[in-house]
Every structure is written in C-alpha cells, then in structure tokens.
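Rotation project, supervised by the postdoc (A.L.). Task for the rotation student: set up a whole-complex structure prediction and record inputs and outputs verbatim in this book. Inputs entered:
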Amino acid sequence: MARIDPTEQSRSRRERILDAAFSAFATRGYRDTAVDDIADAAETSKGGIYFHFKTKEAIFRELMDTTADKLVGKVERAVATETEPVAKAEAAIHAVLATFAGHRTMARLLFLDTMGAGRVFQAETQQLHERFSRLIQGYLDEAVAADAVPPMDTRITSVAWFGAINEVVARWLLADKPGRLEDAYPSLRAMLLRSAGVAAERVGEIPLPVPGHEFPDSAR
Amino acid sequence: MARIDPTEQSRSRRERILDAAFSAFATRGYRDTAVDDIADAAETSKGGIYFHFKTKEAIFRELMDTTADKLVGKVERAVATETEPVAKAEAAIHAVLATFAGHRTMARLLFLDTMGAGRVFQAETQQLHERFSRLIQGYLDEAVAADAVPPMDTRITSVAWFGAINEVVARWLLADKPGRLEDAYPSLRAMLLRSAGVAAERVGEIPLPVPGHEFPDSAR
Amino acid sequence: MARIDPTEQSRSRRERILDAAFSAFATRGYRDTAVDDIADAAETSKGGIYFHFKTKEAIFRELMDTTADKLVGKVERAVATETEPVAKAEAAIHAVLATFAGHRTMARLLFLDTMGAGRVFQAETQQLHERFSRLIQGYLDEAVAADAVPPMDTRITSVAWFGAINEVVARWLLADKPGRLEDAYPSLRAMLLRSAGVAAERVGEIPLPVPGHEFPDSAR
Amino acid sequence: MARIDPTEQSRSRRERILDAAFSAFATRGYRDTAVDDIADAAETSKGGIYFHFKTKEAIFRELMDTTADKLVGKVERAVATETEPVAKAEAAIHAVLATFAGHRTMARLLFLDTMGAGRVFQAETQQLHERFSRLIQGYLDEAVAADAVPPMDTRITSVAWFGAINEVVARWLLADKPGRLEDAYPSLRAMLLRSAGVAAERVGEIPLPVPGHEFPDSAR
DNA sequence: AATGAATGAGGCTTCATTCAT
DNA sequence: GATGAATGAAGCCTCATTCAT
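Outputs recorded:
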C-alpha cells in the first residue's frame, strides 16, 4: 500500500510555494506581491503558506539564497573547465550572461527587486552583491598572481566589474524588445578584459556595434 | 516692514515638503515612507501636502527629476572645463563621485531607491539610467571621433561604465564605515579608461590598494 | 453534537453584514453610511467585510438586487392568484403597498436611497424602475388585449403608474406620523384604474377622504 | 465717474456662484460636487464662496428654493390664463412638462438630486414635493367644487399625480436619447384626467403610441 | 497539515471649512 | 471683499498575520 512519504509530500508543497513565490516576486516585485497571490499560484491557502513559512519575508530570503547558490554554482562549474586565469574570467562573464539569458525571471528577482523589498533586505542584498564581486575578485587575484594582468586594486575592479555586468543585464531585462543578451557578450567581454589590463593580443579585436543588433534602448 | 511675498511663502513651504520627502525617501525608501511622515517632517498637515502635490508619487517624481538635473548639470559643468576627450571623461567620472561623496542622500535617492518605488517607476528609473549612460556615450563617441580611443561599441561600453560607477557608489552608500568615496576614484578611473582602450601612457600608473584604505566591505 | 457547517457559518456572517448594511443604508443613506458603521453593526471588523464583499458598492448592489427580487416575487405571486386582467393589476398594486407597509426599511432602500448613492448607481436605479414599470406594463397590455380597457400608450401609462405608487409610498415613508399605508390603497386603486380607462362599474365607488385618516402631511 | 454700485457688484458675484453651483449640482449631484468645482466654474476662489455663503449646504438650499419658486411661478401664470377647472389642470401639467423640456438641468436639480444630498435635505425635499402636490390639489379641489369631476380624495390623487409627472420627467432625464418630452404630454394628460374622473368627452381620444416616438427606454 | 474566515493597523486621498494676508 | 494656503477629520481599501476548525 504505497503511501506517499509525508516528508516528500510536504516538500513538494513547500516547493510549489517557493516556485509560485519566485515567479510572483520576479514578475510583480516583493511589495506588490500579496501572500494571497502566492497562495493562489501555488494552489494552496494562505494558511498553508504560513504553515511552511513563518513570514512573507522568510520566503523571499530563502528564495534569494537558493537562487544565488544556483547561480554561483553555475559560474563555478563553468570556470572549473578552464585553467588559464583570463579564460576563467571570460568563462565567468559568459556563464552569468548565459544563465540570465535563459532565465530572465531569475535575473529579475536577483538584481532588480532587491531594493523593492525595502530596508529589511538591504543587508541581504549587499551580501549577494558582495558574494559575486568576491567571486570575481578571486579570479582577478589569480590572474594577477599568474602575471596575466598587472597588479591593481582588484577589490574596486571587481566591484566595478560586477556593476558593469549587472547594469547590462538589468538594461536588457527592462527593455521592451530585449533582443539576445548574448549579443552583448563580445563587447562587454572586451571592455572588462581591457579594464583589467589584459594584453591587447589576448583581448583580440574590439567588436563594433552590429547595425540592427544594437543594445536595446529603453522604449518611450 | 518687508512682508513676505506670498508666492515666496508658498514656495518655501513647498520646498520644505520636498526637503522632508527627499530625506525620508532616501532614509526609509519610497514604500516605507508614509505621507504622514513627510507631513510631520515638514511640519505641515497631510492636507497641506496634497495642496502642493497631487499624489505621493508626484513628489517622488519631482524629486527624481530635479535631483537628476542637478547631477547632470554638475557633470556638464565639470566636463566643460576640459577640451581633450579623455580628460572630459575623467572629469565626468570625478564629478559624479565628488557630488555623491558630498551628498550621500542624493545618491541614495537616485540610485538605490528607484526600484523600491515599485513597478510604477521602472520607466522613470530606466530613463534616469538611460540619461546618464547616454551622457557617457556622448563623451566616448567624442573620444572615438578624436582618435583618442579606438572604435568600439560605445553603447554597451557606456552602459557598463554607468553600471560600474553606480555599483561603486552604491557599495559605498551601504557600507557601515563608508570611508572616503574619492579614495576609489584613482582605481575606478584607471579601470574605466583602460576598458575604453585609452593608451597606457595616458592612463598612467595603475593604483594599488592602499593598506587601511581598502574599499569598504559590507558589514556583518 | 452537531457542528455548524462552515459554509453555513460563513453565510450567516455574510448575511449579518448584509442585514447591517441594509438597515444602515436605509437609515442613513448610502453616502452617509461608513463601512465602519456596517462593520460595527454586524459585529465584525472592516476587514471581515472586505473578505465577503469586494467594495462598499458591491454590498449596495447586492442589496438592491435581492430586495427588488423579493418584491417582484411577491407581486408576481399575488398576481398569479388572479385571472381577470384588471384584478391582476389590482393585486399588483395591493401587493406593493402591503409589502412596503410591512417593510418600511425595504421601501426606503429601494425607492428613496437610490440616488443618494450618487452617479454610479443611476444606471442601476433606472433598471430597477424600468423593471417595475415593465411589470406593470405587462398587466396593462394584457388588460388591453382582453378588452378590459381601451387601447392606450401602455408605456407611458405604466411609467406614470409606477411614479404614482412610488410617490405615495415615499411620502408615507417620510411622514412623521405615518399612519397606515394601506389606508391609501382604495383611493390610489381607484385613481389608477380610472387612469387606465377601467369602466366605472368595475372601479366602483370613489372613496372619499376619511376624516382623521387623511394621507399624512410632511411635518414642520 | 460711474462707479459700480458695490452692492450690484457683489450681487453679480453672488449670482455667478449660484449659477455655477446650479449647473454643477445638476450635472454631478450634490455630493459629487466639490466647493472647488463651484469656485472654478464661477471664476472665484473658495474663500470667495465662503464670503457669500455660510456653507455648501446653504448654496444648495437657496438654489432649491428659488428654482422651485420659478417653476411654481410659471405654473401659476399658465394656469391663470384659464378659467375652466379642468383646463387649469391641463395647463398646469403642460407648464411643468414644457418648462422641464426647456430646462433639463433645472429638472435634474429639483427632482433627481434631492436625495443625493443626503439626510439633511429630506425635509427640504419633502416641502418641495408637498408644495407641488398642494398646488395640484388646489386645482383638483376647484374642479370638484365646480362639479367638473366627482368628489374624491384629492389629497392622495394629487400626490399620485405629482408622482406620475415626476417619474415621466425623471425617466426622460435619464434616457440616453431623450426624444422630446412634450411627446409624452398627450398620453400623460389623458391618463391624469381620466384618473380624476374627468368625463370621457372632455378627455377626448386616447392617444396611442406613435411608432418611432415611443417613450425612451433606459439604455443598456 | 491545511483551510478560509477574521482581524486591525495602516495607507493614500478627498474635501468642507478656516484664516492670515 | 477676495485669495489661496492650510487644516484635519473621515473615508475606502489592502494585506500580513492569526486562529478556530
């Protein structure tokens, strides 16, 4: 008599809530998402949600954390396939862009909504950004150590890198006709590599804007 | 016996409201600021606010616009003192950093809270970011035209520049012990100039992190 | 140990709200009734009301509809007991008067407050009046078809009938010392029947005012 | 040096306010008309209004009174041209319909908005209705005295008359495609005269509905 | 575990009225 | 007389959270 493992059953419900919350937060933002919305989307009741999560905030927190974990994991796996320092950095940049390109919603949640959640989450957000820029900084430090790039303040540089990538992604997220995010990769890559002092030969040719494939403008 | 011009009088009240709103929004964010809070801070009544502004949103909008105007003005004035393209870009970067260094709250309002306001303001925010990146793009285009830098996709590069600067400022804003924002200038400048392909001689020496003056870490 | 069916339970609360709203609207009018008033009277919280009804307007709408339904139902049942056309009309008139006589508040809500609700409800109100005058027109048309009365413009006549009845009821509603509404029936009946051209023999004797039982005057 | 008489000047302003209020109340109803609206329409300031009138209610009251006076005046003048009792009644009916036909707004104010004003005005409204039905009753009593109609309860009959007329006017007011109010006169006249027992010869032929000129339906 | 009803604090906005100038 | 700025009491509605079942 195959009864469903209650733990399994519960997890599936819990997961369903997380999924629903994820998509709701990403679509409407934290503040504009009511717990009722999540309940509806998860085909549960409000009470059901409060059984699994202490507060609305807790849902958001958990979502932020696991999502960030996923992304970091992807980046690390992508980087692991490379050995040369600069190639590692390139792989990281590409991994981020590729991941977001495939998961617009994830990007939206991670990078756009963090402030919408209000004061409460600023610490959370900061840690997220910190985490990513530290990741980058690690690769830059390696590159410096390997003499692939000259010494520099890798802290500031990595923060700036993160900002640059973040902005390109955000702009793409909000564009009316997004186009393909990966089209931005060559130029962004060149810009970042050069910013770190990677040798011109290694950077290669500087891409020019392809007519008809310009980076999207914010409409209206 | 100089009576106060009623127009003046009214403007002063209006201004008082704007000031109060400015500081409240910058401190607590748009959503977490109640109209009552603004009224209290402006030493007016809620009704008084609604005499001068149609909605809470209108206050925020006006604040965003005028603040952005001020910043753009400062940047343009700083740039105007230079003639050489790269120097213009440097001046712009420096102007932004210097302005924000002096007006933390302004920065907070412009760059951190925009999303906190919710879906309604995404268009507004986009325009703001757009405006700044276009400003940068203008200088980059000039530099390309003057052969100060090689041809490139100035659209993406300027978006990335904006993102880089934005992130450095934001990180500083949220730091517990901010330090001096201008300490970040040399490295940020070098990073940006190199990213655009400015000649190494022109960029000059790459600054190293000064022990004890590292870029602030996010607390906790 | 009979537990109350939760559906039942909820309905009873919903009903309690409707009852409270009904009496509040009828007493103070739509605009002068705050949602808080209804909540208090229903011994619920404001939020509780908004769980059951989307807006204040929705409560009013539902009340109007069901009340009208009840009245129409009563009239139709009364009419169904008669076969002769003129008798049907008489039954209808009597049913309206009798119903209102027993339910002053219902009358008040249906006939006096409709405009107090403001522009929003004019359509609703019109439909209500339309509904009743169409009901009357149906009986008049039957009477014409049965040669019980001569041909006439039954549309205008029925509108006028409705107006006449409405006014008599309204005047009674607003009177300080209402007296018995049914005392007005004989004269109103005679007036209406004659207005439709019912034969004098069928109408019978024209009632004279009974001293001491005059139709109430508006006080002051 | 022809200075404008200050009294005159003041009255003109006062009148302008009344006019503006009249049209505003008639268009949007009492509750939905803000004092600001009136001020704007009268090209004055809110303060100016409160100089001339103690409260918003006072404006409405005065408007109701003078408007009713005007209408009563018209009716009485029309009736004065007739000597025969039934003709007087006919003249009165016609005068009301004709006046309203020419002044939709006046009708709206007097007959539709009275309740919208809320509890406060019910006394006022009642007096208005009372006044008109007493006017009618006077003519009916004369007719009875002159043996033009048989004895009856003229109190109820006149109330019913008033209601009948009122409803026809109201329906016309709210119709989408009003048509001509006076088209309703023949049938309404016949209905009313018959209701009072006026001899068939005197009433004349009963009008049938003219195809294409039916009394307007409430749209939708 | 889950449900749905209930709560109540709090948010934004409107508007009649007052008042200093 | 007139103006427009200011007041503050309501008003309607939302929503995170709790709770009986």
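Student's summary: Residues 133 and 162 of chain B are 6 Å apart (CA to CA).
Supervisor addendum: Chain B has a mean pLDDT of 85.
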